[in-house]
Amino acid sequence: MNDSAADQSTELAALCSEALGGRRLIVASNRGPVEHRLAPSGELRTRRGSGGLATAFAPIIHKLPISWVSSAMGEGDRIASRQAGGDSITTKLTGEDLRLRYVCPPRRVYHKFYNTFCNPMLWFLQHYMWSSPYTPSIDRAVHDAWQNGYLGVNQFFSDAIVNEAFKRDQPVCVMIHDYHLYLVAGQVRPLLPNAFIHHFIHIPWPSNRYWELLPAYMRTSICESLCNANIIAFQTKNDGMNFLQSCDEFVPASEVNYTERTVAINGHTAFVKTNPQGINVSEVRRISESARVQAFQTLFEGFPGEQSIVRVDRAEPNKNILRGFRAYDLLLQTHPELREHVKFLAFLVPSRTHIRQYHRYLEEVEGVVKNINSKYGTSEWTPIHLYLENDYLKAITGLRIYDVLLANPVIDGMNLVAKEGAVVNTRSGVLLVSESAGVYPQLSKWVLPVAAADIEGTMQAMMSALTMTPQEKQERQALLVESIEQEDVFHWFRRQFEDMSAVMELSRPENN
Questions:
Q1: The domain that contains 433 carries what CATH number?
Q2: Residue 186 placed within a domain
Q3: How far, in Å, CA of 136 to CA of 138, rounded?
Q4: What are phi and psi of 224, to 5 degrees?
């Protein structure tokens, strides 16, 4: 961390501490900041967790006393938890101020929670991924997964949070993250009536018509529970508005104020906020300037004058990878002069391959790449270079050298790749961004917009980006970078804790 980032971390930690007002901070998420692995020798070893949330929390993780409750992701985590008697632990990796507490439900229960409900139900629903005439089929197994998986694991988390809170004679602030833990606020509130609860939802919140595909008792339970938080925060204003409408329709006892963006129920008021997530600009740049990235850059750049379209994504259906490749196919078909002059570098991380739809989608992606390479490739030139691996250094190399960066999800919560790409790119590259991407409202003035399903329009946007004048490209990138730097990860945290401080002040008895 450079001096500027270190100063920002210290300043942010001071702000957070002041906003907390003496409260102990408890964070809850499915994936935690540390994973334990068993070495061949039988020794437990720690490494940083693979989840993006741990990376986002890096600026304050060593600056504030935090208890972090997360799922045991493997046998190593379970062993570490057993060795601690189920209590919280510290590690050399995180220091004394971060206490880890693993939730260890039976594996069968966690399987129902994660593989039957969280991903096939909530993730698909909230990314509009169902084909409603055919999917989902909410059968007895799904109802069972709700009752004996989702509800149960949320209760494990709630019990752990309450246990951590009771360890000290000190009020607490609980920051809950994402769709895995929608029921926690409602389970915790009766036992910790004075806790300040903040729930940040990283993924989109769809319209009521889509939520109505879920059984009424499920969607009502989710909304009622979230209303027990003090703040429910979303990536975009549209997501927050959709949530207010869900409460209005699915929670009859609630009173929704659309002007103030609040939901009142049983004498408690929840505030709905918008806090688009930022990136750690200095850290991303530091990684992009490493020796290994420089070596990869020599490998990927190609011959002088060749241009590159790049995408960096998890290999998931909502990322809209197939349409991106089909737009590139149409580009080479419509503009044959670009053949052997514009290549496509795709850095895709295989994801959730145990889910049938994901596995099938990845097979389709590989098939389309093979067809395009067969159609336009020569002995000297390959149109699409597909890298199917979890290698962040290679991916960030691609972000350094793109002429066009394609971020065309069907829908997503934010899309941090677009932000990372803009701040590390060395070629004044142009961003193509779906209007349905969470990042679009923030960056819309300086990117080329595409409609996610519009292959023709995406092809035309590719051509516009490839032929844009150097001056316009430089101006766009400068303004993009300025916006991203202003609303970075420090800004994201600052906004959240400022919101907490303001709501705490409003909640004081003398202000009611």
A1: 3.40.50.2000
A2: yes
A3: 6
A4: -60, -40
DSSP 8-class letter at 368: H
Helix (H) or strand (E) holding 426: none
Q: What is the number of structural domains in the chain?
A: 2
Domain hosting 206: range is: 3-277+491-506
The Cα–Cα gap between 15 and 493 comes to 10
Please give the Cα distance from 294 to 287 (Å, whole number).
10
Give φ, ψ of 111 to 5 degrees. Answer: -60, -45
Domain membership flag for residue 251: yes
Cross-strand pairs, 44: 38
Peptide bond into 409 cis (omega under 30): no
CA distance 480 to 62: 30
Q: How many CA atoms lie within 13 A of 285 on its CB side?
A: 14
Rg of the chain's alpha carbons, rounded to an integer?
23
What is the tens place of the pLDDT at every residue in 450-478? Answer: 999 999 999 999 999 999 999 999 999 99
Domain presence at residue 511: no
pLDDT at 50: 65
Q: Is 468 helix (H, G, I), strand (E, B) or coil?
A: coil
Long-range contacts of 465-469 (CB under 8 A, 24+ apart): 465/403, 465/404, 465/430, 465/432, 466/307, 466/338, 466/342, 466/403, 466/404, 468/430
Mean pLDDT calculated for residue range 49-77: 82
Q: Which of 222, 220, 228 is nearest to 267 (CA)?
A: 228
Predicted TM-score (pTM) of the model is 0.94
DSSP for 128-154 reads: T---TTT-----HHHHHHIIIIIHHHH
Residues 442 and 374 placed together within one structural domain of the fold: yes
The burial of 81, by beta-carbon neighbours within 10 Å (0-12 exposed, 13-18 middle, 19 or more buried), is given as: buried
- Kindly state the average pLDDT of the residues 433-442: 97
Whether residue 176 sits in one domain with residue 43:
yes
Three-state DSSP class for 387? strand
CA neighbor of 5 nearest in space, from 62, 53, 46: 62
Count CB neighbours of 428 within 10 A. 16
Based on the fold, state whether residues 57 and 30 are members of the same structural domain.
Answer: yes
What's the rounded Cα separation, in Å, for the pair 375 and 122? 39
Q: CA distances (Å), 104 to each of 25, 414, 423, 439, 466, in order?
A: 21, 30, 39, 35, 51
